[in-house]
User: What shape does this take?
Amino acid sequence: MDEIITLTPIGHVENAFDERAEPDTIRAQVSRVVVDADLQAGLLGLQAGEQVMVVYYFHRSRGFDLRQHRRGDPLEPELGVFALRSPDRPNPIGVTVVEVLEIEGSVLKVRGLDALNGSPVLDIKPA
Amino acid sequence: MDEIITLTPIGHVENAFDERAEPDTIRAQVSRVVVDADLQAGLLGLQAGEQVMVVYYFHRSRGFDLRQHRRGDPLEPELGVFALRSPDRPNPIGVTVVEVLEIEGSVLKVRGLDALNGSPVLDIKPA
Assistant: This one.
C-alpha cells in the first residue's frame, strides 16, 4: 500500500522533559496537554479524576530497526518493534492512559503521560 | 501549530464489515491484521493468547463536529468529541486492545477489533 495519511496535531504536551528519560520518571510528573483553543468545545464532558487516553507523536523518534533490545539495553533479548513500546517505530505514535487532574479552558493537567515536552498531540479519547 | 504529520500504514484489516456496524458486533468477530510482509520481523515475540493494542485509521470517517451525540443517537446528550470514541474526529485514529488468536507469517488473527474491512493499520504495541 502506498497510501499516505496526513494528520494535523490538535495540541501539544508541555512538561519539564526536553530529553529522553525513563518513562516511569516522566509519568510520575504532571504534564499539561494544551489543546488548540479552537477545539476546546471538543473537551466537553471530560472531568478531573477521569482517565483518558492520549495519542501523541514521538517527535524525537530516531527512525527504527525492526528488531530492538528492550529499552535499548543490549543485555535484553531482541524483540520485534511491534512487541515493544519503543518510540523508534515505523509510525512513531504513542498511546498512554493518563489521569486528568484538572481542566482549565483547553488545557488538561494530567499525570501518567510519558511524552516529552513539545510532543504533538493527535487525539484524546475515553480510556 | 501548522505542522503536518505524515504516516504510512504498516498493513490493513480484513474482515466481513464493509459498512458501519455496532462496534460490539464487529468486535465479536475474528479480524485479520495483515502486516506488510517486509515488516514481518517486527512481529517477533508476539504470541497467540496475548493482548495487543492495534492503532488504525478510520478510513470511512466523515469529518467531525466538536460536539456529538453518543453513537449518533439524538436522544443521548451531546458531548465533546474527545469524550467520545466516535470515528468522526479531528484525527480519525482508532485504538483497540485485541486478543491475538493466531499468528501466521505476517498475519495476525485477532478478536476484539472494531475496525472496518480495509482499515489502514498504523501500529501494533503491547497492550
